[in-house]
User: Fold this.
Amino acid sequence: MMRSKVLCLVPRATGVCRHMSTATKLTTVAVDDKTGIATLTMNRPPVNGLNLDLLRDLHQSIEEVEGNKSRGLILTSSNPTIFSAGLDILEMYKPDKERIRAFWTALQDVWLALYGSSVPTAAAINGHSPAGGCLLATSCEYRVMLPKFTIGLNETKLGIVAPKWFMSSFLSVLPRREAERALNQGRMFTTEEALKIGLIDEVAISKDQALDKCAQFIGTFAKVNPLARSLTKQQLRAVELQQLENERAQDLERFLFFVNQPAVQKGLGIYLESLKKKAKN
Assistant:
């Protein structure tokens, strides 16, 4: 897919922001010249479903932030009620053989890039964040969420088993007992519940406030040596990152075997039908 970069200067209260985006506009990156912090915004209506194209754009944008010497990365959504609804079910239902391989590989790429990012990362969760949306949020180091939304890895309720690296992000945030129970139950947490158990770090009353709180978190590293910080973070996360790197091919084959099971395909079909009925009502 051909992409063209767009660069413009836009005045903001915090200074000047350099906006960069791909031609598809599924993601945008804005770097605040005053703080040096990049805001990566997902923009795939209606619910930021993680399909192959959005995943590729996310990966490219994260790599872009890594390469432009940003002081930190804030991940958020252009949708006022959905952070990300998770993996696009249409990618997994009656899948094309080549596309489904590219899809899962792209998801692996995004997780490795975000969970292993050398810069401080934070998620401004301005909407519901189930499944893959929760994966993105927990791959960041800090989470600020707006009230009256939900977050969690609810794969078991959809008849899907979360891979080990999904669980790694969850376990890096929650105590094992809480994480195990939530994963087995496919539990979704309200904002208040998520704050209570430590799944999120703060609550904000607006998206702007969430972005400010994320920026404040990233600002706490202003006097810390960037290289020392990066190496410390990557050592702490090295086992999980290396495990996926070593098992990427096997992980892909496990996913393909599982998703092509008749029972799984039947369950995905039923779920899609339920979504169609909701859309009509």
Remarks:
- Residues 1-15 have pLDDT under 50 and may be disordered.
